[in-house]
């Protein structure tokens, strides 16, 4: 362990977490799948967000993705593999998915500390919802959001009044939505000190 750095066991290799200078650096670690949210990654991420949010030694949370993407959303290759879900009625599966999405983004919204999404690349579907649930989003390069209404609605509702950082300008929710809908991309904002 390096001085000033504490590694946290997340219970899976798909999620890394360490504390540096009172900042919890949470890294989605599935670069081969563009950090798609799996059945192992999602609950671990939810736990780490809550654990770091409750830790008095943590002053802020920074969430990023390993490799060239932030998060590709839900891992569609693993969807439907749970035999318990296959027996559920369609309406029950939709209700279950909505509950999971609410608790996923809700865990982040409930944190009473600054939350930052450092996006090294694309954020799609639930990955976009994750980024939108943070207080601040920082693009590390030419970033593209891939919008899906259902995955982003809850995050947008919960963070509707939060500003969006774009360069040196803090944009309100209305302007942020306008910018995203106009050309679906953001200009890079480089903060190399956030990438340890």
Automatic annotation (TrEMBL):
One of its GO terms (molecular function) is isomerase activity. Transmembrane segments: none annotated. Keywords: Isomerase. Pfam families: ECH_1. InterPro entries: ClpP/crotonase-like_dom_sf, Enoyl-CoA_hydra/iso. One of its GO terms (biological process) is fatty acid beta-oxidation. This is Enoyl-CoA hydratase/isomerase. It comes from Bradyrhizobium erythrophlei.
């Amino acid at each position: 362990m390096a001085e000033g750095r504490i590694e946290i066991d997340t219970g899976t290799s798909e999620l890394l977490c360490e504390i540096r200078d009172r900042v919890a650096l949470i890294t989605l670690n599935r670069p081969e799948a563009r950090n798609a949210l799996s059945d192992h990654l999602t609950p671990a991420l939810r736990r780490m967000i809550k654990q770091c949010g409750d830790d008095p030694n943590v002053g802020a949370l920074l969430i990023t993705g390993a490799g060239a993407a932030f998060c590709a959303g839900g891992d569609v290759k693993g969807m439907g593999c749970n035999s318990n879900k296959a027996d559920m009625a369609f309406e029950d599966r939709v209700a279950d998915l909505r509950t999971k999405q609410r608790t996923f983004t809700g865990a982040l919204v409930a944190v009473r500390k600054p939350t930052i999404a450092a996006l090294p690349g694309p954020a799609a579907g639930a990955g976009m919802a994750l980024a939108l649930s943070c207080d601040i989003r920082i693009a590390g390069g030419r970033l593209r959001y891939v919008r899906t209404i259902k995955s982003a609605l809850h995050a947008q509702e919960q963070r509707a009044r939060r500003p969006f950082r774009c360069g040196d300008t803090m944009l309100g929710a209305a302007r942020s939505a306008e910018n995203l809908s106009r050309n679906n991309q953001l200009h890079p904002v480089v903060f190399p000190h956030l990438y340890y």
